[in-house]
Design a protein that fits this description.
Layout (H helix, E strand, L loop, with lengths): L19 H10 L7 H6 L2 H9 L10 H14 L2 H7 L10 H12 L9
Family: Belongs to the RNase T2 family.
GO molecular function: ribonuclease T2 activity; RNA binding
Protein name: Self-incompatibility ribonuclease S7
Length: 117
């Protein structure tokens, strides 16, 4: 259904810890910014959270590995930081949200769902 937010679709889902090349790929392109690389390797809570929250909602189409491959591919395809910067949206600065969303959405073809932290 259009407009439906899909989150946490399978509360019983299990996350498979990754190592070696798979870990290096995720850590390089989608790092856990709260942990050192060594701690992220031991405690993959960040990716587990992302998979359980979002990846479980497409489990009928993508297994866990394919979900992360898709997510990393979309990240490369839609360079959000460059898009935001080109519209004056810079990390750690303040913005008028309504003014910022329209040009960003036009570039992406959708209206992003942003929130402040």
């Amino acid at each position: 259904i259009q407009g439906t937010v899909l989150n946490n679709c399978d509360s019983q889902a299990k996350y498979t810890t990754v190592t070696d090349d798979k870990f290096d790929k995720r850590d390089k392109h989608w790092p856990d910014l709260k942990l050192s690389k060594a701690d992220a390797l031991k405690h993959q809570d960040f990716w587990e959270y992302q998979f359980k929250k979002h990846g479980t909602c497409c489990a009928d189409l993508f297994n866990e590995e394919k979900y992360f491959d898709l997510a990393l591919g979309l990240k490369d395809r839609f360079d959000l930081l460059t898009t935001f910067r080109s519209h004056g949206i810079i990390p750690r600065s303040t913005h008028l949200l309504i003014k910022s969303l329209k040009p960003s959405g036009q570039s992406l073809g959708v209206i992003p769902n942003l929130y402040c932290t």
